[in-house]
Design a protein that fits this description.
Elements (H helix, E strand, L loop, with lengths): L1 E15 L4 E3 L4 E2 L3 E18 L6 E4 L2 E2 L2 H18 L4 E9 L9 H15 L6 H8 L14 E4 L10 E5 L5 E6 L10 H11 L3 H20 L3 H20 L10 H17 L3 E4 L6 E6 L3 H8 L8 E4 L6 E2 L2 H13 L1
Protein name: diphosphomevalonate decarboxylase
EC number: 4.1.1.33
Keywords: ATP-binding, Lipid biosynthesis, Lipid metabolism, Lyase, Nucleotide-binding
């Protein structure tokens, strides 16, 4: 006997950063965060629970995954199996529609899509906030990919109330541009960098306190649709997070020479042209630019004077994760292989 679920979830970029865990097993963050879900990047996933299977299977982009990757998926599925007395093993098939050149991690969209698919397959009927407590255990940022637009991940006080919540649809001329500088594997992973910063940076406690105020201020600005203030807070918060890595012992940074060049270019474009362009960065060298959707074409033209077009990717706000029909799933498979 089988049970099938299929879902799509889009990735997100944090504007108020999540940086540091207070509980590594439960993926409970040190601070609340806020992100923008993007429509240009997403993961489609199908899960089949089958009593005939003797072990879990994981196929990503048409390739059987290594034992270590299968173990990660199995551990995630076990969260549901334990909670809902499910004994069947499962086959997980996923396609990442995240351009290689984007330099974006797909774990947020991947685990959000898988959680949504499991919810459908097993008929659990979990609401999105509750589902986010499961998705969080696969990837912290996946909590936010269950919702569209601007989304808050409330740090909470327990595992049950550390949940994602929608803030705003971001349907008021909001866009984002990704400038891919280096898409190679990072020398310092996000997990290691985060742990090292938390344990050694004398600035870390100040970062946590500052992030609390940033979150309150940016939510107020979002609700007022004050784009300039949203952009200014986004840029400052991202730079403050990266400052904690420079103050770690020993210090390290995700910046590369090209990163600094892009940062200076974005500031110059903003000051000279008056276009609304505010940068942010995750734990990596690539720069994301929060901008007005109506100004993206002009911004791309300015950026393209210094960077090739295939390194510049535009996106509008993405929608919440949702279940796919069988026909939509088949179309997704065809599109992946055609591309």
């Amino acid at each position: 006997m089988t049970a099938i679920g299929r879902a799509r979830a889009h990735t997100n970029i944090a504007l108020i950063k999540y940086w540091g865990k207070r509980d590594k097993a439960l993926f409970l963050p040190m601070n609340s965060s806020l992100s923008l879900t993007l429509d240009a990047f997403y993961t489609d996933t199908q899960v089949i629970f089958d009593e005939a299977l003797t072990e879990d299977q994981f196929v990503l982009n048409g390739q059987n995954q290594t034992d270590s990757e299968v173990i990660k998926i199995s551990q995630f599925l076990d969260l549901f199996r334990r909670a809902f007395k499910e004994t069947r093993r499962a086959q997980v098939l996923s396609y990442n529609f995240v351009p290689t050149a984007a330099g974006l991690a797909s774990s947020a969209s991947a685990f959000a899509a898988l959680a949504m698919a499991v919810n459908q397959a097993l008929g659990l009927g979990l609401d999105r906030e509750t589902l986010s407590t499961y998705a969080r255990r696969g990837s912290g940022s996946s909590t936010r990919s269950l919702f569209g637009g601007f989304v808050e991940w409330d740090m909470g006080t327990t595992s049950e109330n550390s949940v994602a919540q929608p803030v705003d649809d971001a349907d008021w001329d909001v866009g984002m541009i990704v400038i891919a500088i280096n898409t190679s594997k990072k020398t310092v992973s996000s997990r290691i960098g985060m742990d090292h910063t938390v344990s050694t940076s004398p600035f870390y406690e100040a970062w946590k306190e500052s992030a609390k105020h940033d979150l309150v201020a940016i939510k107020e600005a979002i609700l007022a649709r004050d784009f300039q203030t949203v952009g200014q807070i986004t840029e400052h918060n991202g730079m403050k997070m990266h400052a904690t890595t420079l103050s770690a012992n020993p210090p390290f940074t995700y910046f590369e020479p090209e990163t600094l060049r892009v940062q200076n270019l974005v500031r110059q474009i903003r000051e000279v042209t008056g276009l609304s362009a505010y940068m942010t960065m995750d734990a990596g060298p690539n720069v994301k630019v929060l901008c007005r959707a109506s100004e993206m074409e002009r911004l791309v033209a300015e950026l393209a004077k210094d960077f090739p077009n295939d390194k510049i990717i535009t996106s509008l706000p993405g929608q919440a994760a949702y279940c796919l029909t069988e026909e939509e799933w088949r179309e997704s498979e065809r599109r992946f292989y055609d591309d």
